[in-house]
Amino acid sequence: MSSSQLLDQLTDSQVKAKASRAAFGEFLQEFGAKNPRIVALDADLSKSTQTQHFAKKFPDRFFNMGIAEANMIGVAAGLARADFIPFAASFGCFLTGRFDQIRMSVSFTNANVRLIGTHAGVGIGEDGHSQMALEDLALMRVLPHMTVLQPADEADTKRLLEWSLSHKGPCYFRLTRQNLKAVKWSTESQKVKVGHWDFLHTEPNSIMLVNSGGLLESCIKVADQLRSEGHKVSIVNASWISPVAHENFSKIAELKPQLIVSVEDHYTVGGLASVIAENLIEKHAYFPLCKVGVRDFGASGSPQDNLKVYGLDPEGIYQQIKKCYKK
Amino acid sequence: MTFTWPAGSPTSSPVRLALRQAILESIFLAESGHPGGSLSLVEILTAIFDGNFLQSPSDQQNPERDRLVLSKGHGVPALYALYSQLGYFEAKELRGLRKSGHFLQGHPDHLRYPLMEASTGSLGQGVSVALGLALGLRVKFEKGELKRLPKVYCILGDGESQEGQVWECLMSCGKFLPGNLIFILDANEGQIDGPVKEVMDLEPLADKLKAFRLDVSEINGQDVKTIQDKLKSIEIKAHAPAQFIIARTLKGQGVKSMERVIDWHGKAPNKEELKRSLDEIYGENNRPNGSLLEGANS
């Protein structure tokens, strides 16, 4: 990947890269001190999900439920019924694997529960498929009442979590194990607007990369490469998976992209790619869509190797775009 | 004559007979429902609400009120009937059971009827919600936000107890010691596919529950006085083993032709079966409280 114009423009190397799970751990500790309604639950993964800091500081508001996620989700719903704001954390795959408990005890009652699913995607690396959330967005997105969020960096994670404190209803946060490069967010992007995506860089008739989650830096690198080859590019960040504002799609339609590229460390079915396709079609806006994501079960490997194997590193994303792109 | 509730406390015999009638007539009008597992709840529910439950129709959202989670959601016609008898809504609403747009859903639905503390019907889940409620109320009580520690009752079924989540929840009760949580098992011995002991035996149940560090008692769930006395004897402490009462009941309890008949788990009686059942409850053609069918649009 050659020039790094957009990368310098849109990301901040002065700020230390941080995993969104770590940002969550810090948030929970900070806001736990301010808001006595916040309680946290974990299923024996508090060191990984980062609820451990809250647990140490507020032991009377922390419930380690053991390795029993179904019960944890129901107990969280009961705590919400008693007017608390429960943050129930585990790996995303184990949480959303208890789909019926989320469906009935959480979303159907509009319980004010925050489900925190960490360890998203093949990017977690060596642990392999069993620990990877790859279908969690698809599962959570179909549920009425459920807000589904996938932040792109530390600041994004913290502001969306803070927003959730003022929201009444269940939320699912999909967070990463690996560090995420800090984004230079515009003043506009720093204000949370429900369902709104961040149009970080736009050009009409461009190749438009839309990221959700931990692959934004890679998207920007790919955009720089495409630009160096004379292509026009746009970069959109989609932290909101549900609900999504219709303005996102009007704006995309206005920009008339030559190609839309959805980029996510999730199955290409049911996640970001589906959100884009469903909403644009509903607006009678038809553009070619290149779906970059996971198409098979995950496997062991270093995070870097995994992203490479599954075509989610800059080179992999670039090659898939080249395949999809028709002049 | 349209249906009217007889005078008397919930546990009085005339009221319990009328509850059975309301259960059967509302299920008849709905043309579907679960009479067997609703009838087995009558004595348990009336024993709770007769002097062992702080809540009133005029102050339904009192934060210090006691809570009831009906984890065996299919038994909800019994709870609806009782709420109506207690004055929460008019008896004629029972005709709306399972009807489109009505708040009396086929299984408890918190958003359509907020007194249903949990939306249940997918078995095994209400127990966890009840535990969360009990723990949350205890935190509030211990921080001085509540002057009184509310009780949380959770009624579950024996068939339901085959769900793994029930045992996850009971295991965690052994750790958290929610002394304000009272489980009552409606052990009516039946489930859709047959007797519990044939489909998936739970015994020795009391031994299993004791091993989970619960305060276990086993009582005759057909005798309302026994249940009432048991509930009265419970001393609520913030930190103590959760109560677990195995109430030995009968599916179809109180209606002779339905008792122990598995087939009455999940089907509505037809006109003839309804008449026979009501004759068994009151004596032939004797209908002291009128009928929900009078004035119904069916």
Low-confidence stretches of chain A: none
Cα separation of the termini of chain A: 22 Å
Taking the alpha carbons of the first and last residues of chain B, their distance comes to 16 Å
Q: Strand order of the main beta sheet of chain A, please?
A: 3-2-4-5-7-6-12
Q: How many extended strands of chain A?
A: 14
CATH superfamily of the domain at 36-75 and 108-259 in chain B: Thiamin diphosphate (ThDP)-binding fold, Pyr/PP domains
Task: Characterise this structure.
The complex is a heterodimer of chains A (327) and B (298). Chain A is α/β, with parallel strands linked by helices. In chain A, 40% of the residues lie in helices and 19% in strands. Chain A folds into 2 domains: 5-14 and 186-324, 3-Layer(aba) Sandwich (Rossmann fold); 18-180, Thiamin diphosphate (ThDP)-binding fold, Pyr/PP domains (Rossmann fold, 3-Layer(aba) Sandwich), CATH 3.40.50.970. Chain A has helices at 5-10, 20-34, 46-49, 52-57, 69-81, 92-96, 99-107, 136-141, 154-165, 187-190, 216-228, 246-255, 272-282, 303-309, 314-324; strands spanning 18-19, 38-42, 62-64, 85-91, 114-118, 147-149, 171-174, 179-180, 198-201, 207-211, 233-237, 240-242, 259-267, 289-294. Chain A has a 7-stranded mixed sheet, sandwiched between helices. A 5-stranded mixed sheet of chain A has the order 9-11-10-13-14, sandwiched between helices. Chain B is an alpha/beta fold. Chain B has a domain at 36-75 and 108-259: Thiamin diphosphate (ThDP)-binding fold, Pyr/PP domains (Rossmann fold, 3-Layer(aba) Sandwich). Chain B has 10 helices and 7 strands. In chain B, the strands form 2 sheets. A 5-stranded parallel sheet of chain B has the order 1-2-3-7-6, sandwiched between helices. In chain B, helix 1 packs across helix 4, helix 3 (42-49) packs across helix 9 and helix 5 (126-142) packs parallel to helix 6 (164-176). The chains are: A alpha/beta (327), B alpha/beta (298). The A-B interface holds A 36, 39, 60-61, 63, 65-66, 68, 70-84, 86, 100-101, 103-105, 108-110 and B 109-111, 117-122, 124-137, 139-140, 142-143, 164-165, 168-169, 171-172, 175-176.
